[in-house]
Amino acid sequence: MSHSSLDTSDDPRALRSRRRMSEALIRMLRREDLASIGVAELCREAGVHRTTFYGHFESVGDLAAEVFASIIDDASAVTPPHGRPIEDVSGAYLDATVAIIEAVARDRRAIRTLLESDVSHAFRAHMRDQFIRRADTAIGVMRDNGIVVPDNTDVSAAYIAGGMVSTIELWASSDSDDTQAYARSMFENMPAWWPLPG
Q: Is 65 within 8 Å of 114 (Cβ atoms)?
């Protein structure tokens, strides 16, 4: 389990170290597989000590799970337009879904490796938790725009989040490059109450 969920430090040195380790991992994954990256090698690449690494993470896999879940979460950020037709609001969520699929496509090799690794469960859990939060917000936006949504938004958010994680896994395992068509297909399979973009 990663220490990162407990690490709420705003200490600039800690933040800088985490950033350096994350950037080093991404560089290294362009050259080699996750399984071949050791802590010592990663620390040399990042210019940090092993004790620094272990102060934040238990393994390279834990770091990778956090890094790529964060990349996907960043891609899923959406600011729905206010005062626009619901089709435009839904379109903003479709655009965010395209951005997610594009982010996965850019790092497909690393994400495939993560999904097949011993930290797969942690990676999926990171994504699921982030998508539950995002889906809960989206459901509130839909409700505020007059869409009748189920009363139990916890279940609805979990349902959407589980679907997002599974469809990301399916996309990562494919060789397709049509991000627009795949994102549209994801939307066509959303709950019946979710409005489709215009």
A: yes
Alpha helix (H) residue ranges in the chain: 12-29, 39-46, 50-56, 60-75, 86-106, 108-115, 120-144, 153-173, 179-188
Which amino acid does the sequence have at 142?
M
Report, as an integer, the average pLDDT of 127-154: 93
- Could you report the per-residue pLDDT of 91-100, keeping only the tens digit for each? 999 999 999 9
Contact (CB, 8 A) for 68 and 23? no
Q: Which long-range contacts (CB under 8 A, 24 or more apart) does 170-175 make?
A: 171/101, 171/104, 171/105, 172/104, 172/108, 172/111, 172/112, 172/115, 173/112, 173/115
